[in-house]
Amino acid sequence: MASKFDLIVVGGGTSGLEAAKTAAENGLHVALVERKTHPAVVQRSCAQMFLMNMDSFYNERMYFSEATKKWIFPINNFSVNYAGNYRKFYGCHFIAPNARDRIEIGDYEANASEQGTAAVVFDKNVLLEGLYEEGRKAGVHYYLERNVTSATRVAGGVQVGTAEGDRLTATFCIAADGINSRLARISGLNRQRTFLFTAGSVSYYVAGVQFDRSEMICMGNAYDHKGGLGPVHFCMLPSVYRQDEYWLYINGDERLDFFINKSNFSPWFKKTEITHKRCAVINGWSPSPEPFLDNIVFVGDSCWFAEAENTGALMSGHRAANAVCEALHKGQPDRQGVANYISWWKKNWPETHNYRDFLCYAVFFRIFTEDELNYLHRVINKKLFWSMNPFNLYGHIVRGIAPHMDRICRERPELARKLEAFTPQTAVTMMKPATRIGFPAY
Ligand SMILES: Cc1cc2nc3c(=O)[nH]c(=O)nc-3n(C[C@H](O)[C@H](O)[C@H](O)COP(=O)(O)OP(=O)(O)OC[C@H]3O[C@@H](n4cnc5c(N)ncnc54)[C@H](O)[C@@H]3O)c2cc1C
Q1: Are 173 and 278 contained in the same domain?
Q2: CA neighbours within 13 Å on the CB side: how many for 320?
Q3: The pTM is what?
Q4: Full residue range of the structural domain in which residue 134 is found
Q5: pLDDT in tens, 124-140
Q6: What is the number of structural domains in the chain?
Q7: 36 lines ligand 1 (CB under 6 A)
């Protein structure tokens, strides 16, 4: 069946639902195509934190208004309704393998106080359900359980085809199909990008966890001296679903078993229960030169390096929908019509967020031995700038190490040499094994 729309949104994640709702509320005839049974069913790993009340992210400083139950994006001048629970957290701690010493990002005690600047974890199912419902009320036509397999430039716009036989046409298409975007591949956008890596991610919700200063994100490596697992990297933060529950990113059941039962961290997990498990596969590419090709406007993760996060997904979905409305209103249904979105994206994403800095933070603590890590975590005893922006974190850590370099050179010359030799390019080179096992599939 062929149907004609102003806009087809492919993908009903955070960016796609926000884009479809915004465009429909502004009077456009909108279709959203999603392959899942329902957009609000979250199966993919996501730690569900909002990077608010701290560093800026994509040059925005979002916050939550308790009075209106809205996430506010003051610089981009829009808001998103949210009726769900949230849970505050007060810092990010890199924890030494000895499970004791910490490099602290943010001042936990100050942030936990009345005047502090807490960030939150939120309930993604509720966020998505809310956006879905608002879109439905505004008239979005949802095509669920449809897998988009083609998007072709045709006279007057784009034709989108699904494996189930739908043929939909529209003046513009918004690609909101996530990190492994099929539209970025079949449209040819990925030919303008460099393939960087494939990474698998497994995360667990673990209930019954108990430890001090527990309302924070913690990351580190546990070392398995007997079982041969090598360094076991983990990231853990509070869950929004239960007070004693934590989201724990750790790659696989064997590592999880070691971490909670046999590592230096096992005292935190005396009586625990795994409540659920989620996974993700991430194909990382350099960001595309611009988020547009052949009347397809790209939003969220689809054209970005790794994760845009829900913050970036909401902002880009919102801005792209407004740009499409403007283009149609002006009678300029082409690249020039959505030029405002393209320039906003370039300025606030790749021009201010260098993906190499993100990679630095991702691999930095993996270049050291267990002993060196224990030493570094002990030496950096000053609380560092409160930020969870993954593009800025590495810079904050380097600035935290700098005042101690004389001492490190004196006491641990080999470690000092490693620190001095580490550059953004080293981080890219360190990703090469993950490039080789990857699936570039242009
Ligand atoms: C381990 C991990 C931890 C994370 N932690 C956080 C965090 O703490 N905070 C945060 O804000 N973000 C976090 N993120 C990132 C966040 O989940 C994403 O950046 C965000 O969901 C991107 O939204 P999106 O709409 O671009 O893509 P997605 O949410 O991935 O949505 C894409 C949608 O498109 C659909 N789709 C894909 N292909 C097709 C097709 N061919 N046909 C039809 N439909 C299709 C998918 O089913 C999906 O519903 C994390 C991600 C990972 C992997």
Answers
A1: no
A2: 33
A3: 0.96
A4: 2-84+123-194+286-348
A5: 999 999 999 999 999 99
A6: 3
A7: yes
